[in-house]
Amino acid sequence: MIVVEDLHKHFGGFHAVDGASLEIAEGTITGLIGPNGAGKTTLFNVIAGVLQPTSGRVTMGGEDITGLPPHALFAKGLLRTFQIAHEFSSMTVRENLMMVPGDQSGETLWNAWFRRAAVAEQERELAKKADEVLEFLTIDHLADEKAGNLSGGQKKLLELGRTMMVDARIVFLDEVGAGVNRTLLNTIGDAILRLNKERGYTFCMIEHDMDFIGRLCDPVICMAEGRVLAQGSIDEIKGNEQVIEAYLGTGLKNKAVAEAAS
Question: Of 163 and 102, which is predicted with more confidence?
């Protein structure tokens, strides 16, 4: 579905992404791991149109989407979430979801003045869909709660819910598990798996929790210094010496060698 070819993103003399090439197959949950500074979030930002690439190419379903702005990619079904959730804190959880679909009738002054019945009907439909999303995510009891009052994990679920309010084809998740307690993390994982299996969502996710990655992701891609270092199953990645050295550190590699020898 997504093909990244020799992608570069430079900030002055710093090469945050330095010739990365990878593929994300349709219908998969692909994990993206690597040490801090490996270029993972920058890669996401370039693919999702937040940053313009220095060079390279990104295609989705064979269509060149390199450098397209986020709103254009959103319309094509490419969505991303952020490590820090971005909610409308003074609005309810339901209202946050209702805000997502574009080109709503009430957004034009003419409709707001002269087609109030049509606007109200669309709002009822959006509210119904939002409630279905919240029930799917098992947070329907929070529908009328102000989004700013949610816990970190609940806000991550709300961000996931936003992707369900439109016809998402692929969703990029940036550290969806960061700062989330284990119970809610399991709930988020269950929701991702259900969206993948029942609704055909394709996911690519940055994550540091290897257990969470192992539960959800196949394949797993490891980045280091702006490049793709290795790709494979979670077991293949864990056993890759380059990955161990770059991601887990030489100390752990030497410890593993010592344990094997003893």
Answer: 163
State whether residue 78 is helix, strand or coil: strand
pLDDT at 109: 63
Tell me phi and psi for residue 157, to 5 degrees. -65, -40
Residue 82 token pair: 């952020």
Q: Is the pLDDT of residue 252 over 60?
A: no
pTM (2 d.p.): 0.84
Q: Are 65 and 170 in contact (CB under 8 A)?
A: no
The span from the CA of 134 to the CA of 126, in Å, is 12
Altogether, the residues listed in the chain come to a count of 262
pLDDT band at 111 (very low <50, low <70, confident <90, very high): low
Residue 108 is given by DSSP the state: S
Contact 91, 180 (CB under 8 A): no
Sign of dihedral through CA atoms 90, 94, 96, 99?
negative
Task: Compute how many other C-beta atoms are within 10 angstroms of the C-beta atom of residue 147.
Answer: 21
Distance (Å, whole) CA 260 – CA 262: 6
More confident residue, 5 or 246: 5
Look at residue 247 and tell me whether its pLDDT is greater than 70.
no
Report whether pLDDT(133) > 90. Answer: yes
> What are the residues whose beta carbons fall under 8 Å from the beta carbon of 221, sequence distance 6 or more?
22, 30, 31, 32, 33, 228, 230, 231
Q: Most distant CA pair in the chain: distance in Å?
A: 81
Which stretch of DSSP H or E encloses residue 29? strand 29-33
Q: Is 101 helix (H, G, I), strand (E, B) or coil?
A: coil
> CA nearest 189: which of 155, 212, 164?
212
